[in-house]
Design a protein that fits this description.
Helices cover about 30% and strands about 20% of the residues. It is an alpha+beta fold and about 120 residues long.
Amino acid sequence: MELHLTFDAWDRFQESLYERGDRLDLREPGGTYARDERVDVWVLSAHAEALYSQDIDPDVWETLSDLDLEAADEESGWALIRDFYLERGGVLVRIGDGVSADDREEWIFSEGLSTRLRLADHAD
């Protein structure tokens, strides 16, 4: 499955989340949340299966090694990682305006987490 979010929608998605302990979940209207339960890209990255981001070093080479895969360059390595997770039911989230490749963000989440966090509700 593949979803597309604008940068604004991605930010709103992150703002709708909180992390308590090791669990990432949706904020409820009127709920009370401590500052340390706030979710930013660093917190969210801990829950992603894999990511390719301009803001966070995705360490494509380490992920390839963990998956026993090899690639000639980072771009083809990311394609292998993306295919690996998509073949196993992962949800690819493409973030950006679709104009500039330099601003591209791609995150992969498990289907279960994506569904629980209603990620598709934020997609175009």
